[in-house]
Amino acid sequence: MAIQLSKGQRIDLTKTNPGLTKAVIGLGWDTNKYSGGHDFDLDASAFLVDAHDNCVNDLDFVFYNNLEHPSGGVIHTGDNRTGEGDGDDEQIIVDFSKIPAHIEKIGITVTIHDAEARSQNFGQVSNAFVRVVDEETQNELLRFDLGEDFSIETAVVVCELYRHGGEWKFNAIGSGFSGGLAALCRNYGLQV
């Protein structure tokens, strides 16, 4: 059975799961009834950052227009433009054995595409979650339900995977940002 985490909790991934080399980071959400006339398009992204919490270059930003990190260590499986259906709406596959040595952390985020133009925000999103699944066994290792703590935010840092003592750990963040994808890019040291 998967471990259920709360905001701010940290847990070991690779030490307590020997042999874990590839993990599927599954993200899901529902949108509340909304009469704004536009569909919601939520997008998952991964920011691979160094010890200074910055991406070294644009290729360290994996998202719908850059589906794979050059190392092959992080792969976005594609953009789900509707978020309809049960289960994961988008997935990011992390192969810990291929992550370059200078990468200390992987920030997993979700943004709302064209949020400002469509008058959309995370206050209109419910049942958001992230889960980590062992790709080989398909066992769900952990789950973090984000709750309903958002109002005007258009981007969320959902979680971080980070190195500590030669192992990979998971940090349940759940921190909202205004300013969408551009604000997140600036947060991780990218020019927009």
Mean pLDDT: 91
Radius of gyration: 16 Å
- Total helical elements: 2
Distance between the termini: 41 Å
Uncertain stretches of 5 or more adjacent residues: none
Biggest sheet features: 6 strands, mixed
Question: What CATH architecture do you see?
Answer: Sandwich
Q: How helical, in percent, are the residues? A: under 10%
In terms of structural class, how would the helical and strand content be classed?
Answer: mainly beta
Q: For the record, what CATH class applies?
A: Mainly Beta
CATH T-level fold name: Lipoxygenase-1
Give the neighbour order of strands across the main sheet: 1-10-9-3-7-6
Count of β-strands: 12
CATH homologous superfamily classification: sav2460 like domains
Q: What is the element string, with H for helices and E for strands?
A: EEEEEEEEHEEEEH
**Strand residue content:** 35-45%
Q: So what's the overall shape? A: globular
Tally of distinct domains: 1
Distinctive features:
42% strand; Stress/Tellurium_Resist; mainly beta; 6-stranded mixed sheet; 2 helices; TerD; globular; 6-stranded antiparallel sheet; Lipoxygenase-1; 192 residues
Brief sketch in words of this structure:
The chain contains two helices and twelve strands.
